[in-house]
Automatic annotation (TrEMBL):
Stored SUPFAM superfamilies: Family A G protein-coupled receptor-like
Name of protein: G-protein coupled receptors family 1 profile domain-containing protein
Main location: membrane
Bilayer-crossing regions: 12-38, 50-74, 94-114, 171-202
GO CC annotation terms, alphabetical: plasma membrane
Subcellular locations according to the entry: Membrane
Key words, A-Z: G-protein coupled receptor, Glycoprotein, Membrane, Receptor, Transducer, Transmembrane, Transmembrane helix
GO process annotations (BP): phospholipase C-activating G protein-coupled receptor signaling pathway; positive regulation of Rho protein signal transduction
Organism from which the protein derives: Mesitornis unicolor (brown roatelo)
Lineage: Eukaryota, Metazoa, Chordata, Craniata, Vertebrata
Amino acid sequence: MKDLRRYLVLKYIQYLVLSSSNAISTFLGLLGSLYTIIILQSAKVSSKSTVVLISSLAKADILVFISIVSDMVIRTFDVSISSTAFTSALLQNLLTANIHISCLLLSCVAFEAYLITFYPTESRHSRTVKNARLTSRIIWILVTAECALLQNDDLLKATSASASTRSPHVLLFHLSTAAALLRSLSYFLGILLRIVNVYFYYKIFFSMSNR
């Protein structure tokens, strides 16, 4: 559990403390996720709701790995791609999906820690492995839908810019509006999650200090 706590600290710094990811934090995050996935296979690690959330958090870095490897292959071997705009947008949206999934899962872990600290008995019925798995699935589904919408918006913009026809402009307008609203919502949600996480750990820290 000490290793899992260190991993959570690393992920909190990477996604909720740093304003943007960099090469060092991304590399350490990938190594931490790989190590976490390995140790979670051990029979010594009990199946708990927090462990389920951490496992899903570690698996989210697969999106980062795919994006980085794909970009390296394209640049190194000068791979010719029929739709450069589509591929570029997809790799960026994979990174965005990873950030959003990770932030939401980290917030779930923080909320569970808050419940364990202040409402251990009352919240026991909700802090189950089944609920943790359901929460993880919902987060993945929502973020996947977000990624699909953003990808379609980027693709339609690229197609509209290169095409001479004016027919898709109505669809482009509605899709761009929805994507813009979604990006704004994601931005403000990210700020809110940072505030909420600080509040949770502030309360937990002072509660443990008083004890």
